[in-house]
Amino acid sequence: MGDILSLVLKRLGYGLITLLVISVIIFFMVELLPGDIAQAVLGQGATEENLAALREQMGLNDPAPVRYFEWLLGAIQGDFGASIISGERVSSVIGERFMNTLFLAAYAAVIAVPFAITLGIIVALLRNTLFDRVANVLTLTSISSPEFFLGYILILYFSVKWGMFPAIASLSQDMTIMELLERTFLPALTLVLVVTAHMMRMTRAAIINLLASPYIEMARLKGTPPWKVIVRHALPNAWAPIINVVALNLAYLITGVVLVEVVFVYPGIGQALVDAVSKRDFPIVQACCLIFAGTFILLNLAADVGAILTNPRLRHPK
Amino acid sequence: MSVFVITYFGLLIATSCAAAYWNQRGPFLTLFSLTLVSFVLGIVGGAGALRFVAIAAGMIAFAAGISYAFREFLVLITSHNLSKEIKTAPLTASFGMFVIFTYAVAGIFAPWIAPYGESEVISSAFAPADENMLLGADQLGRDMFSRIIYGARNTVGLALLATVAAFLMGAFAGLLAATKGGWFDQVLGRIADIIMSIPSLIFALLMLSIFGPQVIVIIVAVAIIYAPRVFRLTRAVAGNVVVMDYIEAAKLRGEKTWYLIRREILPNSTAPLIAEFGLEFCFVFLLVAGLSFLGLGVQPPTADWGSMVRENATLISFGEITPLIPAAAIALLTVAVNFVVDWMLFRSSGLKEQ
Which of A311, B87, B127, B302 could form a disulfide linkage to B137, CB 3.0–4.6 angstroms apart? Predict the structure, then answer.
């Protein structure tokens, strides 16, 4: 057991260090601005007094490392400073939106994960048949399409032509859960299409890789029934790659969510990020980037830890 | 029962009988199961559903025909060695090559093909298609068709430039790391790890928010984001070559690092690198398209597929499909490149799957 524990701890520590380095990158990248934030906010025509006042107000007179630690301490407690356009607290701008995004991603994941893994395993077992070829072309097309293409096709058919689901995913406080699920169905479906395709292909590759190993052939040759080959011999070793596939694709959802939110005007954190980027509202950009990158790292971490925990060789040391 | 439905079933049954007669097992099973499915579809969806199936089948047949013809054409015009390779290409790969060829022609000869300039206002906003304008006008009254043609030059060109930048950076660092090894290798590896642990779109948005949406910023951002992928692959491939005896011999001869990279390592690792270039191009292309869709890529009035979708998206709520054409153009090129890459990987790996 000690081996596993130390491996997991090592991996956790490594993830934490990565996150720290990324926070440094996100913070100091803004320092690369020609001039400084105050200059960027007020523009070239700003007077010296105004600049000085704004610098004082934003605490820009402290040296950068001091500001970095203040920012990081605040970020850990959920306080990312104030927006430089509206003056609102960043946490109040993105807090609720973050929950909305999590909801959308979870909605998509709940549909996509079981669906994709089942299909992936079926396609792997039926490899090189017509069904496999058709699935290959379809998933390839889905991966190759930009998210906004799939999103607009769904809007065109499901909402404009057939009138089944709303095209704009506006949310309000007093919606029942059914209404909520209906409103967010199209954005979730777009994400499901993209992620399912990725996940199916990766599951298929992992399973085929596994079925080619010598011990599977051995099991077949000694006359084990096919279902038993899969359940007893292949599956225990398949968990690690499958967990990996799931976590990687959930991480992929994070980037997909930005484009999908813009297509469906969904009030999520991705839209907030895009708005902030075009308005150059750096505190919001930094906060959103840190949240996205943090989630991304967390999911990758979960994948690695899951792979360590389900590895039979590590669980039963010699 | 319209004439269409009778012809439809007549044709299907006749071809499946013919396939069965000449013992063509695969085609027969496909055709006959299509016939059975069509019975159900015809009852549920009526002639409309059957028409849809017929159009889809026709398009697939058309694509297959053109890919076949294009492959034979390539076999005839290329040299003996190359034509032997091309003969083995599956239809999907030659379809991909045909699409890439078409896009290249459209991009290179855009000013001659497009009837109007890319920022020329010629009619009212959202004017419908007429004999002057094949696809109607966009939100400012510019010819949609001309803008799509110019988009092949701008969007694909930008993605290609960015990919080349990422590739040169990554491949150079990878080759250097594999030949030098030691702490240099370690440091580059850690940097690559860090960059890869930030989601690509998020990293690009961060850079664009700071340096503003300019073409040069996009190219540099994409190069930094995607170079680590190339770096890892190059390092792995070159790492396998570096341990060979002939490298040792060259080192003992006293050859310099640059000679080793250029004359010994590169020629032995081109195949996987070319395939990686194709894959990389797909990622970059989708990222650049996504950025322009968000309004942070190529700035107006330059014609660009991603921003064209965004600007004309209102038309979709009237049931028009013209705004989707640039998006479909992006998807088609990515699929095409993927088809070609699949074939190359298949060839260079010597059939991994089985």
Answer: B127
